[in-house]
Amino acid sequence: MPSASAVPVCPPLSLYIHVPWCVRKCPYCDFNSHAVRGDIPEDAYLTALLEDLEQDLSFVRGRPIESVFIGGGTPSLMSSGFYQRLFEGLRQRLSFAPDAEITLEANPGTLEEGRYEGFRQAGINRLSIGVQSFHPAHLKTLGRIHDATAAHRAIETAKAAGFSNFNIDLMHGLPDQTPEQALDDLRQALDHQPTHLSWYQLTIEPNTEFFSRPPDLPDDDRLWEIYRQGAEYLRAHNFDDYEVSAWSRPNLESRHNLNYWQFGDYLALGAGGHGKVSLGDGRILRYWKTRQPEAYLNRIGSRTAGSEDIELKERPLEFMMNALRLKHGVGEDLFTERTGLPLSPVAVQLEQLRKQHLLVPGRIQTTEQGQRYLNSLLEQFL
Ligand SMILES: C[S@@+](CC[C@H](N)C(=O)[O-])C[C@H]1O[C@@H](n2cnc3c(N)ncnc32)[C@H](O)[C@@H]1O
Ligand code: SF4
Q1: Most buried of 2, 231, 289, 357 (most Cβ within 10 A)?
Q2: pTM, 2 dp
Q3: What is the pLDDT of residues 223-244, one digit of tens each?
Q4: What are the structural domains of the chain?
Q5: How close is the Cα of 48 to the center of ligand 2, in Å?
């Protein structure tokens, strides 16, 4: 079993906040999201989130918050007043880096007059807009609550409210989708000049409607053609796939997601949130919050449903699973900084993978071929 050479250097700290409600459940989605019945209990959720934070303050250890991601569910269902009060509460308990990236996920079907301006006033400085497709038939198959016009309007409204840094979520490999239709989605998205694009291939997840009644998906040849043409188009428009589904303009990667993939620390608040923190004595803890919104709201005391140490022997694989997702990888020093382990327990595997031209020399970074065989490559670190 590897031994710790040092405790992990105090990694940058992010904050994830989960909002578990949606207007209705999309048939492909396995996130912790629940169709809302009646009014959302905003006041009670705000109180619960701040109580939840109080319990986790010892994890902060004087660090400023470098990024916040408010994900869901549909965080844009909550009013801007909710976020104003939430950030007041957060700022009373935490310090934020002066240039902290603060992102909120927005569904175009929840656009209300003045809401995006209110989000900005609350301190949110980045939006991630869930469009999925601009094609009417695909929006219908995906059970989305908005049409293409509403998606365009949401993006324009976000820009008019001052969100120059924004992401658009699109999915590809949709039922009956042609490469031309997938390209057209990308074209329409890029017409709005986003700084970032999350371009996910649709996957069929257990416990979803699509899993019980699978739609007809494109075959592998067509999936490859959709990906090939789309990737070529995005590269020609100055977007870099710094991770398999994450495309950005130069230097505009999602700093929040980069921190996950660089094995940084993150606090988690809200129903079903997952966190990971280095405790300062060599331990690294992962923990998760009560998942059901009702139970989360009504819980007295800690809302942590479970936690476990990331043991020394698990750390090499955990680190590699994250860092090797990044096309540009990470420096070797980061391994020791974040895991507290010397490089020696993985030196043999790194050398072997370099000889097979799956990793580049001198860094923890895949070659193009290594990226293609990422799963079998990772098995080396089991
Ligand atoms: C939590 S949702 C985003 C925000 C908001 N709830 C919405 O849907 O507009 C995160 C993103 O994950 C992607 N996603 C969800 N389920 C997926 C699946 N089965 N396959 C591929 N991408 C998926 C979608 O692009 C979605 O926008
Ligand atoms: S994709 Fe978004 S809107 Fe649809 S159910 Fe999942 S979290 Fe909710």
Answers
A1: 289
A2: 0.97
A3: 999 999 999 999 999 999 999 9
A4: 13-259 (3.20.20.70), 316-382 (no CATH)
A5: 22
